[in-house]
Amino acid sequence: MPEFSYPKPLSSEITPKEIYYSRRKVLGVGLAGVSVAASGQLKAAPLKTHTGAFPSSLDPTPKEFATGYNNFYEFGMEKDDPVLHSGDFHPLPWTLEISGLVNKPQQIDVEELLKSKEIEERIYRMRCVEGWSMVIPWDGIPLRSLLMLAEPLSSARYVAFESVVRPSEMAGQKDGISGISWPYVEGLRLDEAMHPLSLLAVGMYGDSLPNQNGAPIRLVVPWKYGFKGIKSIQRIRLVKDMPSTTWNKLAPDEYGFYANVNPKVDHPRWSQATERVIGSKSLFGEKRQPTLMFNGYGEQVADLYKDMDLRVNF
Ligand SMILES: Nc1nc2c(c(=O)[nH]1)N[C@H]1C(S)=C(S)[C@@H](COP(=O)(O)O)O[C@H]1N2
Ligand SMILES: [Mo]
To answer: What is each CA distance from 107 to 111, 189, 191, 192, in whole angstroms?
Structure first.
């Protein structure tokens, strides 16, 4: 049992791809099998979505990759564990709590939120710290809209997020193998959380979120590594001090609080200069492309960090 595992660079990084895929049967025949086996749990419901403030011409990753190749350690540590083992998870009804340093604490009924006319589509790049990427069309509500409802106090400086704890429905919370102490927790500085790009997604590809992607509501912060995008959120608290975060607790020298995508700051065990494009094909197999500073969102977010040394605050 590994003491802690994440970004062990996954077997997919260290074994030749062909072997990895045939072993896990993630792709090809295996993937088709997965979608059939899992179709019972997807129960995707179409959402009313409109193109919002940030239209994009990026080409989305084929849906079967975005919903079949996942990190969601509550359901296991392999990329196909979430799609294979999240079928017993029941995301609705769901109450999202917003509390802490606010004037008006909120209990948000996510079933109601799913009917909201404010749901917009955001096609975002998604870069995992493990060195792979996708482009995902999310449907959601800007995080700032919900935070504003709660009216943060001036003493609030950070936002702390907590995922659900349900060992009876989440095998990875029962077996203890990952070494994570549940709930999975994440955090943002308040100005990052209020940035218009920060999204609470309730859907993807025009339908409600599949369990494996963080149903019924998850965070998406496109200029940061994927692990900041905490799934199946139950509680959001406005706080004074920097909250602790799951991967930072496990390996503080490898995963910082900020986790901004940065091709010039390598992970201690691998380079962050390029990324595997999941679901892509070239003559030579999967494509690799250069990783962009702030994952390509520098124009919108660089100002948030103008006085910071990004090597120290990685
Ligand atoms: N609760 C929870 N949230 C999580 C994770 C997790 O294991 N548990 N994994 C993170 C990581 S490492 C990534 S890359 C993204 C993956 O999101 P996706 O599977 O929807 O692509 O979810 C993040 N959110
Ligand atoms: Mo990740």
So the answer is: 12, 22, 22, 22
